[in-house]
Amino acid sequence: MKCSKCGNEMVIYKVATKVGTAVGATAGGVTGCAAGAGAGAATGGETGGIIGFCLLGPFGAVAGASFGAIAGGILGALGGGAAGAYTGSKLGEAVDEKIIAKYVCKTCGHEDRD
Ligand SMILES: [Zn+2]
Fold first, then answer.
1. C-alpha span between 28 and 90 (Å, rounded)
2. What is the pTM of this model?
3. How far, in Å, from the CA of 57 to the mean position of ligand 1?
4. Exposed/middle/buried for residue 21 (C-beta within 10 Å: 0-12, 13-18, 19+)
5. How far is the CA of 5 from the centre of ligand 1 (A)?
6. How many CA atoms are closer than 13 Å to the CA of 47, on its beta-carbon side?
């Protein structure tokens, strides 16, 4: 990035750093957590039901499905939350770079947006 006034090199200057990153991480974490919990409960319930049925028959299937859904939901929420927060913070970083960042000329102090 060159200065439009004097043509010298400009440095990136952030007005408010990490705002987009923080917002993105929170939003992504919440969304990922909910999605992960739903997916985990569904797969956990199914797996638990099969295991329960094999061990204890129809009653085991019900107990296994409930336990599997709870365990799967917790694991799914943890995994989904972490994955969502990571993706969200990456998206937020892009927002920080694009919208919040601006450039300042090292020579004349001229400010410019991207
Ligand atoms: Zn300049």
1. 10
2. 0.56
3. 78
4. buried
5. 5
6. 12
Beta-carbon neighbours within 5 Å of ion ligand 1: 3, 5-6, 105, 107-108, 110
Q: Report the sign of the C-alpha dihedral through residues 87, 88, 93, 95, in that order.
A: positive
Would you list the domain boundaries of the chain? Answer: 10-112
pLDDT by residue for the chain (114 residues), tens only, comes to 899 999 999 988 766 656 667 877 888 888 887 888 888 888 888 888 888 888 888 888 888 888 888 888 888 888 888 888 888 888 877 776 666 678 889 899 998 876
Report the separation in Å between the CA atom of 80 and the middle of ligand 1, taken as the mean of its atom positions: 46
Output the CA 11–ligand 1 centroid distance in Å. Answer: 10
Tokens read off for 86: 């990571």
Distance of CA 81 to CAs 7, 27, 36, 38, 95, Å? 46, 10, 7, 12, 21
Distance between CA 13 and CA 5 in Å, rounded? 17
Q: 99: CA distance to ligand 1 center in Å?
A: 21
